[in-house]
Amino acid sequence: MIGLLLGALGAGLGLGAGLAINTRMSRHTAGPVGASLINFLVGALVALVLVLFGVGGRPDLNAAWALPLGTFLGGAVGALYVALSLSAAASLGVTVSTALVVLGQLIVSRLVDAFGWLGQPVRPLEWPQVLGAALLLGAVAYLQWERNRTPGS
């Protein structure tokens, strides 16, 4: 269990660093969409190398092609995520935009769990989860207020 928790934390750390890296790339390429394209091309190359080395097992492409078409929307959502988060980070900064991304993820993941959307088991909504989202919203508001208050940010 500790390994999974640390892995999820590491994924979050990687996303935060990746946003800063891709924001820089966005300024020097064709903007957020161009940076998103480069991001996914590099990511596809890394995934290909990992597959060739057998990391995580070999994908069953026949099984993948048999899945419903909507299953492939994850890639489209990912590309939009990168482009939108880069646009937000360029104006709001990496901290505020990351907090907003996490808030958005928390909201949609709770809806998915609460209603069993996208083939997930139903996990009822509980008040501590609503409180957590409200606290995160407060943190976003505070971070943006602090950013606006600080000269040169």
What do you see in this structure?
By secondary structure, this protein is mainly alpha-helical. It has one domain (about 15-150). It has six helices and no strands. The protein has helices at about 1-30, 30-50, 60-65, 75-90, 95-115, 125-150. The protein starts with a helix and ends with a helix.
Seen as an oligomer or otherwise, the chain set is: single chain
* Radius of gyration based on Cα positions: 18 Å
Strand portion: under 5%
- Kindly give the count of domains: 1
Helix percent band:
over 70%
The largest sheet, given as strand count, sense and whether it forms a barrel, is:
none
Question: In one word, what is the shape?
Answer: globular
N to C succession of SSEs: HHHHHH
The count of β-strands is 0
- Which regions contain 5 or more consecutive residues with pLDDT less than 50? none
Tell me the distance between the termini: 39 Å
What's the overall average pLDDT, rounded? 90
The secondary-structure class comes to mainly alpha
Query: Number of helical segments?
Result: 6
Index terms:
globular, 153 residues, single chain, mainly alpha
Tell me the layout of helices and strands:
Layout: H1 2-28, H2 31-52, H3 61-65, H4 73-92, H5 94-115, H6 127-149
What is the structure about, briefly put?
This protein is mostly helical and 153 residues long. The chain has one domain (14-149).
